[in-house]
Design goal:
The structure is a single chain. Helix content is 42%, strand content 16%. The protein is built from 19 helices and 19 strands. A seven-stranded mixed beta sheet has the order 2-7-1-8-9-10-11, with helices on both faces. Strand 14 and strand 15 form a beta hairpin. The longest helix has 22 residues.
Length: 486
């Protein structure tokens, strides 16, 4: 393949959106009936979160990373999980399994028995004690070693029948996942003591659980949830809503949409039924809102309009006003280690540029090499060359006055402002000549030697040897390199 063919081949891949999950993201947005601008929210909020999760797993790839996700009813847990899964699989190559506490509800028969033996309020599913948490814990453990010969079956709960689906309709997993996303409205909920439980928080507790038997059993079960599942969590995400009143408001909107889609639906709740229903979850939800932000590894904060207002990721605080800057090495990172190709990363670079996120190339390459790549990738950003020896700013980034005021030197031939930081190459060459190391000098060896050492074309070798602040040396062994360093 000629150099021209390679260039045309690369440019063709540059326009292949399938190399990045953008097409799938837009498809998922349409599937969920979300507005088109939700794409930018995925890019801004979910991308850094998925990157952090992928990094956490890469740091300890021997076992699946268990990610617990808590959010009140209507907060968007399912939406968050669906986009995190898509990004983790398509962008980071992480096999991802999603689980929901809802799919581990006790069967209808078991809940009828529970409501008869313990308390009538347990006929309503949702609170701790209405899940088969031991089944959930067992499946999380089994996922670590599942295979085609020994598949792991994930239960599915059918809310339309208020019962668990038959086992032959469960989801089949035949490979151990890298990451498990486990969401639930009470995931990792705080425990409460006897004194707190003695005082009712709403009319449901006051009138229908006057002796506290229902809520005491809930918290006994919650303790067990922590012991067998929650305490095994590797990363905890909390989706925080403004206050508990939003649960009724947002759940009410869901009921209105359900009624509009199916006017004959008998399960749609009116306002009185809805208010009673959410009181089942009020105590735990209020406690989560108060206590979980302090212990979560990441917190997504929603505003009153159900939009993400900010996010804490570790110690990093992100707001809508946050600005991103990405600095990247080139060989073996941005560019393929084997053939310097960039087809896989090009669509991402274009998206970052479209969102005005600078991508700063930081490399050992020369100005000529780096400028070529900056133009190919359309970064329109500063670039750092020869291992920090100089920073180049394209003229388009600032005016003549701004460049002069910043103390930069104008390189009019290459249309750049320059901040020179390194030692000039002639001084470095004099030092190398004086030391006379047992090494091949990349600047003075033959072109054939340089090509053999780097795998570059003659044209690229000439660009790589056009150095202003560095002298690359190739030592035949570590002993010779160590002697020169001393």
């Amino acid at each position: 393949m000629t150099e021209r063919d390679k260039s045309e081949h690369t440019e063709a891949h540059l326009n292949n959106e399938a190399l990045f999950p953008s097409v799938l993201i837009r498809q998922e947005i349409r599937n969920q009936g979300l507005p088109d601008n939700f794409y930018d929210l995925v890019d801004f909020w979910y991308s850094p979160l998925s990157s952090e999760l992928a990094s956490r797993h890469s740091n300890n790839p021997s076992a699946p990373l268990l990610v617990g996700i808590n959010g009140a009813q209507g907060s968007g847990k399912s939406t968050t999980v669906s986009f995190l899964k898509l990004l983790l699989e398509r962008q980071f190559g992480k096999r991802t399994v999603t689980l929901s506490l809802d799919d581990f509800y006790l069967t209808r028969t078991e809940r009828v028995r529970l409501s008869r033996d313990i308390h009538p309020l347990f006929i309503t599913r949702g609170v701790p004690g209405t899940h088969d948490i031991d089944l959930a814990s067992g499946i999380v453990s089994a996922l670590k070693s599942c295979s085609e010969a020994k598949p792991c079956l994930l239960p599915v709960f059918d809310k339309s029948t208020d019962d668990r689906k038959p086992a032959d309709e469960w989801t089949r997993v035949t490979q151990p996942p890298d990451i498990i996303l486990f969401e639930g409205w009470c995931y990792n909920a705080p425990l409460q003591g006897v004194v707190q439980l003695n005082e009712s928080v709403n009319t449901l507790e006051k009138n229908e659980d006057p002796d506290g038997r229902w809520r005491s059993y809930i918290y006994e079960q919650l303790q067990h949830y922590h012991e067998v599942l929650f305490d095994q969590t590797d990363f905890f995400l909390f989706i925080s809503i403004p206050d508990f009143s939003k649960v009724a408001e947002w759940r009410g909107l869901q009921e209105q949409k359900l009624a509009a889609r199916n006017p004959q639906a008998s399960a749609v709740m009116d306002e009185a039924a809805l208010n009673r229903f959410i009181q089942h979850y009020e105590r735990i939800t209020r406690d989560c809102l108060q206590k979980l932000p302090a212990i979560a590894d990441a917190v997504i904060r929603l505003d009153a309009h159900h939009n993400i207002a900010s996010m804490r990721l570790g110690t990093l605080e992100l707001t809508r006003e946050s600005r991103w800057l990405i600095s990247t090495d080139m060989d073996g990172t941005l560019l393929s280690h084997d053939d310097y190709s960039y087809e896989g990363i090009a669509p991402l670079i274009r998206r970052l540029s479209a969102n005005q996120i600078p991508v700063v190339l930081n490399t050992s390459k020369t100005r000529a090499e780096t400028q070529k790549w900056a133009q190919l990738l359309h970064t329109h950003s500063p670039y750092i060359v020869e291992n920090g020896s100089a920073i180049y700013f394209p003229f388009e980034m600032m005016s003549e006055l701004e460049g002069r005021k910043a103390g930069l030197v104008a390189d009019r031939e290459h249309q750049c402002w320059v901040r020179e930081l390194g030692t000039p190459v002639n001084e470095l060459q004099q030092f190398v000549d004086f030391m006379d190391p047992d090494a091949i000098n990349f600047l003075t060896c033959t072109e054939a030697q340089a090509m053999a050492l780097t795998g570059l074309t003659p044209e690229d070798v000439r660009a790589a040897r056009n150095r202003a602040w560095s002298v690359p040396l190739h030592f035949s062994d570590s002993q010779a390199a160590g002697a020169f360093k001393k």
